[in-house]
Amino acid sequence: MAAALEDELGDIVQKARDGKSFSQGDLARAVGLSVGKVGRIESYEWIPEDSVLLKLAGALDLHGPSLVAIAREKWVPEEITPDPDPFDIICLNVYMGLYPVKCYLLTCRETHATAVIDTGGDPEAVIKKVRELDLQPEKILLTHAHPDHAGGLSQLDREFQCPTWLDKKEPRPSGSRNLQFVEGGDLISLGKLKIEAIATRGHTPGGISYRINRSIISGDAIFAGSMGRANSSWSLLFNSITQNLLTLPEDTRLYPGHGPATTVGEEKQHNPFFCGKVGGEE
Ligand SMILES: [Fe+2]
Question: Are residues 65 and 99 in the same domain?
Fold first, then answer.
């Protein structure tokens, strides 16, 4: 059984309303609901009938059938098949309190060169897995500096004694004694692998996704069926996703910071924010 989505109807409505700069009152007026009912949708207390969901989608510039499918729990992405190229991506749930964050170990199969992508809040699970596999990480790559993704940096810095990379526009996380900076388009070497940094700003000022062939570790930019919270800029986040991620081949795997892995093709077909807004494969 595939993992549940990170975002529910209430999250999607709230994020889309943020994108339109609508208050709950604005949205209520646009679709003929009370403000209280909009509040109940956003706090997961009420899932309205399909006709109301389609009105909400229309007012919020979301793809109606995709929104209905998620509200009715009729869609999750197919379980992905790993990229056949010579690297391994191991996904670890690392907790910040009770909240799971997905961190990744990326290993070049030929040389065993390894990078840790995001630390989580309490990175014991990362350290345990690295020891179990007898690896020696040589790089820590951060998608962004939020504490649930970078809070374990000082512990991993002490443990692995390796440089940490993040976008130069991102706030500086504490804990690294050797901070290096990337920007979109840069290539980072890992054994025989080349990792491309892709700018996916908007959730934070310097969000970065990391692409290895047809696999991308995308932090909190896009989730299966939703998008990250636009703490920095909604339009920048939307444009980053539509221009820098969803233009890639449809079988490109997306490994987000929360929720299940997905593909570019799945999100173009089923994500209510993006369905119908990005062209087909060339
Ligand atoms: Fe985040």
Answer: no
What distance in angstroms lies between residue 207's CA and the mean position of ligand 1's atoms? 9
110 C-alpha to ligand 1 centroid (Å): 32
Distance 148 CA to ligand 1 centre (A): 7
Distance (angstroms) between ligand 1 centre and the Cα of 32 equals 33
Ligand 1 ion: residues within 5 Å (CB): 146, 220
Residues 152 and 245 in one domain: yes
Answer whether residue 282 shows pLDDT above 50: no
User: 109 and 67 in one domain?
Assistant: no
CB 250, CB 281: distance < 8 Å: yes
14: helix, strand or coil: helix
Contact 198, 187 (CB under 8 A): no
How many Å lie between the centroid of ligand 1 and the Cα of residue 116?
Answer: 17
Question: What pLDDT, in 10s, does the model give residues 74-110?
Answer: 999 999 998 888 999 999 999 888 888 999 999 999 9
Cα–ligand 1 centroid distance for 101 (angstroms): 9
pLDDT tens figures, 108-134: 999 999 999 999 999 999 999 999 999
Does a structural domain hold residue 101? yes
Can you tell me which residue has the tokens 């692409």? Answer: 211
State the distance from the centre of ligand 1 to the C-alpha of 223, rounded, in angstroms.
11
More confident residue, 82 or 251: 251
Ligand 1: distance of its center to the CA of 206 in Å? 11
Ligand 1 center–CA 2 separation, angstroms:
23
Boundaries of domain holding 40: 9-71
How far is residue 192's CA from residue 249's CA, in Å, rounded to a whole number? 22
Mark whether 108 and 243 lie in a shared domain: yes
Burial (0-12, 13-18, 19+ Cβ within 10 Å), 40:
middle
How many domains does the chain fold into?
Answer: 2
3-class DSSP state of 29: helix
pLDDT tens for 6-64 read: 999 999 999 999 999 999 999 999 999 999 999 999 999 999 999 999 999 999 999 99
pTM of the model: 0.96
